[in-house]
Specification:
- This protein is mainly alpha-helical.
- It is about 75% helix and about 0% strand.
- It is globular and about 75 Å long.
Length: about 775
């Protein structure tokens, strides 16, 4: 019986895959049925899309070809009800394909009765998407009736995705009428993603009108790539709609890739015609990456003429990967022919693991014969990881038979983790063969590799690691894993760690995971954590989750805390409450008298409101008492505002009184502004009076321009008034610039009066030993340059 059921399931899966592939092929030919990008116009006002020029008179005939009867679908739902069918979203999409509105309405309550939450969500969203194609109003009503807010949002997104396939303008118009600005923006960006392949011109305009700089860069690639496949010139012309240099580079790379799919020579000629290096590099990269997929030998030949070292390094793995897939020996010969050791290493790091998937012994023997010791150790480790998947005994025998004892020890350090997945005792026995100084680190690595696969086995292996740094790191790792699966056990384990930021952060993660499962237990655990950073972080996670479930209860808990603790708790509650129900959170604020609760609650509200309405959040900051809370809120508002309108954010910061709030907010605004339009950001910084604030802004621009335009960064260094800061920046810019243009960097350092001895240190830094690199890292942390 079991065998028959597996056969049925296999047949269904094959049918599903076949239907999906055929649907894809039909969809790829659907331009004759659908609208063309040139027919779509978008008005100039932000967020407004012009009416559709034409509507397709005929729909693709493939939709009904895969339609199942209501009875057939009910049988599948019944199997899912009994946990006899485990369909992903793609499988449910095929099940629901072609369902009419009446059938969808009848099936909806049956799907809602599925006990498994994930299964129910997949089935429901697939049904709603299909339902919306025939009856968007009915599908929307069904989604709106869902009681869970997350399910309601997910269902609405599924409805709009289906609606947009038939009537994109109708779906967009509905989204634009949403009252909540955050949901409106998120929904419009979701539609941009849905429309990327079928109507990239419309998707592009939705992105430009609604995305902040970070989201724009994330979604722009898919849209521009799809557009370039249809009309590269129109895609290029559209880039004039924004000034963000980072977004332009992302778009140029995507356009080059999409264009190269159909016309690689034309795309390459266009890319090489770009005079600006900062635009030429991503454009050529996009073209050659796509060319590498289709013709790796041609891409390898073109790579020989690339003199830009950074670009060449980026392209080598793509060429190596594609070449190895078609001809492994040709790929190896190409890698060996590369002129520099770093280039060869990058190529082999891609080729060897692919070889090891098919022929691990041959790949291992090849690696052992390499001359470079470090390269040999690294690559052999990657081979053995693949080999252990297919034949762990032969992989183990190969390691034991290595003649070079140094290589054997180095490989064992990584290999023990692979052995541990099969046999803990054997892994420990192997570890005991290593020198004592290496044993703990090897077992720590083994715990790291084992934690994702078998947490219980990783815990057993932990017992064999002696006390010390390696054990503490392993505990931290396991604590993070346990935070998701067994928070109470994780918290007990983490309590054995020494105090520090790592322990504090992981404990907060574990507490948040526990709160999602059981608030009362989480609060009890929270009360057992001693006062300090760990408790503060854990409290933030727990109260955030509690507020999402029951804001009134969370607030009542905060009222029972002391003054300073009240303020910290109120920040977490205000942030989470505003995300879930902004109107209710504002109503609560109006009830609060002056004091720690109100101060913290306003800070939390500002954090959330600033994402969609920074002007309103700025007004709230003005009502706060001067102090740390106001400074933190000002920084948050300034950064979020600068994502949308950096000039307005800069004007607001400029009007703030001197103090911590202004000093903290100013560099955040400049950072966001410079990422979009460095010239305008620079002009604003230059109008500041000479002193700390101007130096702060100049420093941000220097760090932003450091990699993309080191020559401009160098010009800004001369404008820094603080002598110590200028000296440090000279070293940073000189070292970075030399990696792309050593001669120019050396000439500039000479002009800046740097001595010959110091120039030599800057241009030839000893990796990991320079005295000023730490300052570079600290600056990144201080400005929070990472997203």
């Amino acid at each position: 019986m079991k065998t028959n059921w597996l056969i049925v399931l296999l047949a269904f899966c094959l049918g599903t895959i076949g239907g999906y592939v055929l649907a894809k092929r039909v969809g790829a030919q659907g331009e004759s049925y659908g609208q063309q990008p040139a027919q779509i116009g978008v008005a100039n006002s932000p967020g407004t899309v012009a009416p559709e020029a034409t509507k397709p008179a005929v729909q693709p005939p493939d939709e009904q070809a895969f339609t199942r009867s209501a009875a057939e679908i009910e049988m599948i739902i019944a199997k899912a009800q009994r946990n006899e069918w485990d369909g992903c979203i793609h499988a449910w999409t095929e099940v629901m394909r072609g369902v009419d509105a009446a059938t969808a309405a009848a099936l909806f309550p049956k799907i809602q009765a599925l006990p498994d939450k994930r299964m129910r969500a997949n089935a429901r969203d697939a049904l709603l998407k299909q339902w919306a194609k025939a009856d968007p109003a009915g599908a929307l009503a069904a989604a709106a009736a869902l009681s869970d807010p997350r399910e309601r949002d997910s269902g609405t997104a599924a409805v709009l995705a289906g609606w947009a396939e038939k009537d994109p303008q109708g779906a967009i118009a509905y989204a634009q009428q949403m009252a909540d600005p955050q949901k409106r923006r998120k929904t419009l960006l979701g539609l941009a993603d849905d429309l990327a392949e079928t109507n990239p011109a419309l998707a592009f305009d939705l992105l430009v009108a609604n995305a902040d700089s970070h989201t724009l860069r994330l979604q722009l690639g898919d849209v521009c790539r799809a557009w370039a496949r249809k009309d590269p010139q129109a895609a290029l012309q559209a880039l004039n709609k924004f000034k963000s240099a980072a977004a332009r580079r992302e778009a140029l790379s995507a356009i080059g890739s999409g264009w190269a799919e159909s016309d690689p020579e034309g795309a390459l000629a266009w890319a090489n015609s770009l005079g600006n290096t900062q635009e030429w590099r991503p454009a050529v990269k996009g073209v050659l990456e796509k060319l590498a997929e289709n013709d790796p030998a041609r891409a390898a030949t073109l790579l020989e003429g690339v003199t830009d070292r950074r670009l060449a390094n980026d392209l080598i793995p793509d060429i190596a990967r594609a070449m190895a897939e078609s001809d492994m020996q040709q790929a190896l010969r190409w890698a060996e022919s590369l002129k520099t050791s770093s280039a060869r290493r990058r190529a082999l790091q891609t080729i060897i693991p692919q070889w090891a998937e098919e022929m691990p012994k041959a790949a291992a023997e090849y690696v052992v014969g390499l001359a470079d010791t470090h390269e040999r150790e690294s690559l052999l480790g990657s081979v053995l990881r693949e080999w252990c998947q297919s034949d762990p005994d032969k992989a183990q025998a190969f390691v034991e038979g290595l003649a070079d004892p140094a290589l054997r020890s180095a490989v064992l350090r990584d290999f023990i983790g692979e052995i541990a997945q099969e046999n803990i005792e054997k892994a420990v026995a192997f570890a005991n063969q290593l020198p004592e100084s290496e044993r703990a680190e090897a077992l720590h690595r083994a715990v790291f590799s084992l934690a994702d696969e078998d947490l219980e086995a990783a815990m057993k292996l932990l017992e064999h690691i002696p006390h010390g740094q390696a054990r503490e790191q392993a505990i931290g790792l396991l604590g993070m894993q346990l935070a998701e699966q067994d928070p109470l056990t994780g918290l007990k384990l983490l309590a054995t760690l020494p105090e520090g930021s790592t322990r504090d952060w992981i404990i907060s993660r574990a507490a948040g995971a526990l709160a999602a499962q059981d608030i009362s237990t989480a609060i009890a655990v929270l009360n057992e954590i001693p006062a300090g950073e760990a408790r503060d972080r854990a409290q933030q996670q727990v109260l955030g989750e509690w507020t999402r479930q029951d804001p009134a209860a969370a607030f009542a808990y905060a009222q029972g805390l002391s003054g300073a603790e009240q303020e910290k708790a109120a920040v977490a509650i205000g942030t989470a409450w505003a995300r879930e129900a902004l109107a209710d959170a504002k109503a609560k604020l109006s009830e609060l008298p002056e004091g720690p609760l109100r101060t913290g609650f306003i800070e939390g509200l500002c954090t959330t409101i600033a994402r969609n309405s920074p002007e309103e959040a700025a007004q709230m900051v003005g009502t706060m008492l001067t102090g740390d809370a106001q400074s933190r809120a000002a920084v948050t508002v300034a950064e979020q505002w600068a994502r949308k309108d950096p000039a307005a954010a800069a004007n607001w910061v400029g009007a703030l009184p001197s103090g911590e709030a202004r000093a903290g907010a100013l560099p955040r605004v400049v950072l966001r502004w410079a990422a979009k339009d460095v010239e305008s950001a620079g002009a604003w910084v230059r109008q500041l009076p000479t002193g700390k604030e101007r130096d702060s802004g100049a420093r941000v621009i220097i760090m932003e321009e450091l990699w993309r335009n080191p020559e401009n960064a160098a010009k800004w260094v001369s404008e820094v008034a603080d002598t110590n800061l200028r000296t440090k920046l000279i070293k940073i810019v000189g070292n970075t610039w030399q990696s792309s243009n050593r001669q120019a960097a050396e000439q500039w350092l000479t002009q800046m009066g740097v001595s010959a001895e110091e120039r030599n240190k800057i241009l030839n830094p000893a990796f990991g030993t320079d005295s000023w690199g730490g300052m570079f890292f600290d600056m990144d942390l201080e400005l929070d340059l990472a997203e």
